[in-house]
Amino acid sequence: MNENFDAGVGAPNRWKFIIGGLLIAAAVVYLIYSSTAASAQYFLTVQEVSAPGVNVQNRDLRISGAVIGDTIAYDPQTLTLSFTVAHIPGDNDEIEEQGGLAFVLHNAVESPSAILQVVYNGPKPDLLENEAQAIMTGRLGDDGVFYADELLLKCPTKYEEAVPEQAEG
Q1: pLDDT at 153 over 60
Q2: Does residue 167 register a pLDDT over 70?
Q3: Contact 71/118 with Cβ under 8 angstroms?
Q4: In total, how many domains does the chain have?
Q5: 162 domain residue, yes or no
Q6: Phi and psi torsions of 39, nearest 5°
Q7: How far apart are CA 85 and CA 116, in angstroms?
Q8: Quick check: is 167 in a domain?
Q9: What is the pLDDT of residue 51?
Q10: Which residues contact 131 (CB under 8 A, 6 or more apart)?
Q11: For position 39, what pLDDT does the model report?
C-alpha cells in the first residue's frame, strides 16, 4: 500500500464537482418553474369569472359553460362566432349529484345564474347548439367579453342513445 497517500489531495476537485452539480440542479429547477408559470392557465367557472372584484383580465383562462342556443351568431365572411354561456359547476361530483351533465346543462340554460358573452374566430363547430357544454381557452377582455382562442364542445344528449349494445355470444 502507498503510505504517502494524502486524503486532502482530491478534496478541491470533489468540491468543484459538487458546486457544478448544484448549479446545474438550480438551473433545471429554475427552467421548470419559469416554463410552468408562463404556460399556466386558470380553470374557472362562469360564476367565478363574473363575480365582482375578480381580476382575471388579460390572463390565460379555461372556462366551461352551457351554450345558450338562441344567442349563437356566426358570420361566415369573417369567421366570427359569438354566443353566450351559462354557469355550470366545475366539480364533476357536484354535476353527478345534480343528476348528470345533460340535466345540469339543461337547467343552466333554462335558468342561468351567471352568463358570459364569448367571441371566437374560426369555423363554426358542428356540435355548437343549445345546451352543449363549451370548454373555451382564451382571455377575458376589459369589456367583459371572453375572447376564445380554442373552443371544444361536448353534447351529451347526442350520444345518450348512440351507445351500442353488447353482442351476446
Answers
A1: yes
A2: no
A3: no
A4: 2
A5: no
A6: -105, 10
A7: 5
A8: no
A9: 79
A10: 66, 67, 69, 102, 105, 106, 109, 155, 157
A11: 55
pLDDT value for 156: 62
Rounded Cα distance, 158 and 153, in Å: 12
- Decide if 87 is inside a domain: yes
Please give the distance of CA 67 from its chain centroid, rounded to a whole number.
Answer: 17
Q: Which residue has the cell 361566415?
A: 76
Relative to beta strand 115-121, strand 80-87 is antiparallel
Confidence of residue 45 (pLDDT cuts 50, 70, 90): confident
Domain that holds residue 23: 8-40
**What element of type H or E holds 86?**
strand 80-87
Predicted pLDDT at 42: 63
Grid cell at residue 138: 382564451
DSSP of 37-77: HHT--EEEEHHHHHSTT---BTS-EEEEEEEEEEEEEEETT
Cα distances from 77 to residues 22, 51, 92, 101, 117, in angstroms, run: 57, 35, 38, 34, 21
Assess whether 14 and 73 both reside in one domain: no
CA distances from 49 to 57, 93, 115, 157, 158 (A): 9, 21, 10, 27, 29
Do 48 and 125 lie in one domain? The reply is yes
> Is the pTM above the cut of 0.70?
no
